[in-house]
Amino acid sequence: MAIKRRQLLILGGLAIGGGVGGAAVSGILSRKPEAITPADPKATTANNPKPAKSTVARSPNPAPKGLYAPARGDVRIVLISDLNSAYGSTDYIDQVKQAIVFVPAWEPDLVLCGGDMVAGQDNSLKPSEIEAMWQGFDKHIAAPIRKAKLPFGFTIGNHDASGSSFGGKSTFENDRNAVLKYWQDPKHDANLNFVDRAGFPFYYTFTQNDIFFLTWDASTSEIPSDQLKWAEKSLASEAAQKAKLRIAIGHLPLYAVAKGRETPGNYLDDADRLRALFEKYNVHTYISGHDHAYYPAHKGKLELLNAGVLGDGPRRLLSGDITPNRTVSVIDIKLETAETIYTTYDMDTLKVIDQSTLPRYIDAPNGRITRRDIKI
Ligand SMILES: [Fe+2]
Q1: pLDDT tens, position by position, 68-78
Q2: 233: CA distance to ligand 1 center in Å?
Q3: Could you tell me the distance, in angstroms and rounded to a whole number, from the CA of residue 277 to the centre of ligand 1?
């Protein structure tokens, strides 16, 4: 059945070759794209007045028992990404479940997810099967995070609700509908302090502890022009510019870092232009998923955090000889100096990854990015 599904998907990918956005196809799960489906503007609820404060106790260096315990910054984020398994899966591998159990012990202010929370992007899945995946996500991921009263920011991945389209029609309409239905259900409140939720859950902005977050729909390689205008307006806004820090997050990276992800469609089109947009508005970091390989980098004035994978399919970096791994990152932020400190755990060994073992730079197909600690 899995083979049949994959064959169908690949055929579908060929059929939509002229569609909007580059096709992202590779790995255990094939990948694909589309164009934004803006949410109903009437649904906009600007400035959700609810404060997004976690209620967990604070300690100087909180961490799960037995794990390295970094000193907490003014703000702490736990970053997870690419959680899914095989198409249609309603369950998660043990490393994902273990990470979710660990999350409250790190005492974060915010949990972020780089997308691919479920395993869709397969039109042989029935709507009931897609809904069952989101129920599985809720049971194993979202409900425990809600129970811990932690805000959950996320970006939509190609397997959650690919934005690809052909002839003006969404290629994965059932996925898009399911993601809307799930996230617009008040029972699934993400506990975010929204600034602009008109495009939620596809693109939106929120603040957390004086940091401005912009999430866009990078489930395909093309950010549509209307969403780019929205992003620029959002980043130029008073809410963004008066914040101590700005962070953007999208599923596809600007520059590929992993083998099998270096083909067009697997990274954003016109990356340099998008980077220039972020630099213009002093965005500190762009966080992405999709590549299934952890790599903290910088290019120009922008930091790039490739979140790595927590679920199935770790990948090799384009350079170096590091064994592929599954990761969770704790990001501690010092607001006054805009310093971000990453503690990234290998979720198979529970050891902290030594940044110096990562390649000093990676030559992505669209430009070289440099490890974040290496000055150029
Ligand atoms: Fe992906």
Answers
A1: 999 999 999 99
A2: 27
A3: 23
Q: How far is the CA of 24 from the centre of ligand 1 (A)?
A: 8
What phi and psi values does residue 176 have, to the nearest 5 degrees?
Answer: -60, -45
pLDDT tens digits, residue range 313-368?
999 999 999 999 999 999 999 999 999 999 999 999 999 999 999 999 999 999 99
Dist. CA 325 → ligand 1 center (Å)? 16
Expressed in angstroms and rounded, the spacing between residue 335 Cα and the centre of ligand 1 is 31
Q: Residue 275 C-alpha to ligand 1 middle, in angstroms? A: 20
Tokens 């599954």 identify what position?
A: 326
- Report the predicted TM-score, pTM, of the whole model to 2 decimal places: 0.86
Distance CA 189, CA 62 (A): 26
Task: Determine the distance separating the centroid of ligand 1 and the alpha carbon of 51, expressed in angstroms.
Answer: 31
Residues contacting 349, CB < 8 A, separation 6+: 325
Question: Which domains are seen in the chain, by residue range?
Answer: 2-371 (3.60.21.10)
Nearest to 93 by CA among 46, 49, 33, 141: 141
